[in-house]
Specification:
Elements lengths: L9 E2 L6 H4 L7 E6 L5 H19 L2 E6 L5 H10 L4 E5 L13 H13 L8 H12 L12 E4 L5 E2 L7 H8 L3 E3 L2 E3 L8 H11 L10 H4 L10 E3 L4 E4 H5 L1 H13 L1 H4 L4 H12 L5 E3 L5 E3 L2 E3 L4 H6 L18 H7 L14
Parallel strand pairs: 1-4, 2-3, 2-5, 3-4, 7-11
Antiparallel strand pairs: 5-10, 6-12, 7-10, 8-9, 12-13
Helix pairs in contact: 2-3, 5-12, 7-10
Bound molecules: guanosine-5'-diphosphate (GDP) and manganese (II) ion (MN).
């Protein structure tokens, strides 16, 4: 682990490049949180979890992104919480608004229909901008350019276990591109044409589909239909190079032009997950079975007692979602021929 800056201080978009020069062979990595000023105290809980369980030993930076200006209180409090350097960025207006090819009347009608059907966030404009931003833009923000890896953190999450190794170094050493803790099927009503659009993309750009991909994780019928399985993107550790690659950029552009972020309610989770499953070789996708995680309403609590005791996980394995019938992690284990931990059956219902 390289030397971390002693003094934490907030800075604006211009950044502090010098801090990096001293860090030697430390991985160029950061935490990243998209948040509003009013998310501050829920986010502070998350930061505290991540710092206590991991970052107090490693002092990685933290980038905060917002479609609005962060206020002084937000910056002051988060800077005090993070043991690495904090950076605060605003999102360019054109990345948080309707692109010119979107028919806003049509989009408004869809929101009305989804409101009537009580589809979660179906009537929200800002949620759609958020999903589109997380799908296509966060990794291009100027503040993110100095990094190779990221860990996404949302407000109100929990990490249950000590993480006594450098997760970013693990990613670099093993050449992992995408890491997750929880996986489940997406609400169908939010993505009616996402798979059809994806199939068209694959037909037009077969060169971007990896030969050793994990399509079987997201499709039960050889690619004819999407089974809805997605990695829950409120936790993500990943290689930014993947999102910045021609393959993913083309895929995002294709989806964006199709309009489903606004005419439906495509989430960044299914978009990231489908992309990772098709455009990456499957061994570059990593399941974290040892960190313990919570985002309302699901828990990842390692069912392997050895893991739980070694890492002092403060969670109840009976709450674990990993091996429940509805969890897609079962499928992940199957398609990768992985052995489930002993006694997993006890926690399957
Ligand atoms: P959920 O987890 O799907 O229920 O969605 P969240 O409300 O947690 O939003 C996902 C992430 O985007 C969180 O990090 C939020 O803080 C952030 N977020 C959601 N909406 C907005 C928004 O309108 N502006 C900003 N700046 N961040 C947002
Ligand atoms: Mn959330």
């Amino acid at each position: 682990v390289g030397k971390a800056p002693e003094v934490t201080e907030g800075s604006d978009d211009t950044g502090e490049k010098e801090a990096f020069a001293e860090q030697g062979d430390k991985v160029k990595a950061t935490f990243v949180s998209l948040a509003r000023n009013r998310d501050l105290y829920e986010l502070v809980e998350s930061i505290r979890q991540v710092e206590d369980k991991f970052n107090k030993k490693y002092h990685y930076d933290w980038v905060f992104l917002n479609d609005d200006e962060f206020d002084t209180e937000f910056k002051k409090v988060t800077t005090a919480m993070v043991s690495g350097t904090t950076y605060y960025g605003t999102i360019p207006k054109e990345q948080w608004g309707f692109p010119e090819w979107i028919d806003t009347d049509k989009a408004a009608k869809v929101r009305e229909e989804m409101r009537a059907k009580k589809i979660i966030y179906g009537d929200s404009i800002s949620y759609r901008h958020m999903c589109r931003y997380e799908s296509g833009f966060f990794f291009r923000h100027p503040l993110m350019q100095q990094y190779e890896y990221y860990w996404r953190v949302e407000p109100g999450i929990k990490i249950f276990c000590n993480i006594d190794y450098d997760v970013f170094k693990l990613f670099k050493d093993k050449n992992y591109a995408y890491g997750f803790t929880i996986s489940l099927p997406e609400y169908r009503e939010t993505i009616p044409t996402l798979w059809e659009t994806t199939k068209k993309f694959m037909a037009e750009y077969p060169q971007y589909v990896d030969k050793n991909n994990m399509q079987d994780f997201i499709s039960d019928d050889g690619g004819s239909s999407y089974n809805g399985c997605h990695f829950w993107s409120n936790f993500e550790i990943g290689d930014l190079k993947f999102w910045r690659s021609d393959a993913y950029m083309k895929y995002f552009e294709y989806l964006d032009k199709a309009g489903g972020f606004f005419y439906e309610r495509w989430g960044d989770a299914p978009v990231h997950s489908i992309a990772a499953s098709l455009l990456l070789p499957k061994e570059r996708i990593h399941f974290f079975d040892d960190v313990g995680y919570y985002h309302v309403p699901f828990f990842n609590c390692p069912v392997d007692e050895k893991v739980r005791l070694e890492n002092q996980c403060s969670c109840n394995p009976n709450d674990d979602f990993t091996f429940k019938g509805y969890s897609c992690v079962n499928r992940y284990y199957k398609v990768n021929n992985l052995k489930k931990p002993d006694g997993w059956e006890k926690y399957a219902n």
